[in-house]
Design brief:
mainly alpha; 9 helices; about 0% strand
């Protein structure tokens, strides 16, 4: 066996690994995008901002809201990545990912005040995936992002203080989605994973 093979990470085909990836990556995209912007924007006043109760409350709300949307975006990204390997079984793929998305929302229950938004995100996803499946799969740099309007609506930095920064904020979010696609490709064997997802779904249906 070549030395390279000893250290190469075997790509996963396990549905449970994909379920973990969805939740972890959705959280990462939200946290990284929101916190990086807020820290850069606060600059030398970071300590004052991040100890202010009003700011922290708004930040807490923003992180949850963006997480719900980012989790949906990561799910849509996975759907686009796996769909070419499941010609004829697109509906099974969508149903499987919708179930994983719902499970992710349950595994990390939101605070009571954020729960209605989590339920909305859960209910919207099936229609969102169905609409995406009406066209060819889109790569990460072209995928429409549900998290984008949510991010702009909830950032705990006043809109007046964000003038001229919209492109940079969108770019930061898009960058995290693109790197998520790269991580998805690195971690998973798409062909084998697609087959496992169908087999697991059909097994539950049987």
């Amino acid at each position: 066996m070549a030395l390279f093979d000893l250290f190469r990470t075997r790509r996963s085909a396990a549905p449970e690994d994909l379920a973990h990836f969805l939740q972890a990556q959705g959280a990462y995209v939200a946290q990284k995008t929101v916190l990086d912007y807020c820290r850069v924007k606060s600059g030398r006043n970071e300590k004052r901002y991040f100890t202010d109760e009003d700011f922290l409350q708004a930040l807490h709300h923003c992180r949850w809201q963006v997480y719900f949307a980012a989790l949906s975006d990561v799910t849509a990204l996975v759907e686009a990545h796996l769909r070419p390997y499941l010609a004829g079984d697109e509906s099974i793929l969508a149903e499987t990912l919708v179930a994983m998305h719902a499970d992710a929302l349950h595994r990390e229950p939101p605070p009571d005040e954020e729960r209605p938004s989590a339920e909305v995100a859960r209910d919207i996803l099936p229609r969102h995936l169905a609409e995406l499946q009406m066209a060819p799969p889109l790569p990460a740099h072209r995928l429409p992002l549900l998290a984008e309007p949510v991010l702009f609506a909830t950032l705990p930095i006043h809109a007046e203080q964000r003038k001229g920064e919209s492109l940079a904020i969108r770019g930061a979010l898009r960058f995290q989605i693109v790197t998520t696609q790269q991580e998805l490709e690195r971690r998973f064997d798409a062909t084998a994973l697609a087959l496992q997802l169908v087999a697991a779904r059909m097994g539950r249906a049987g």
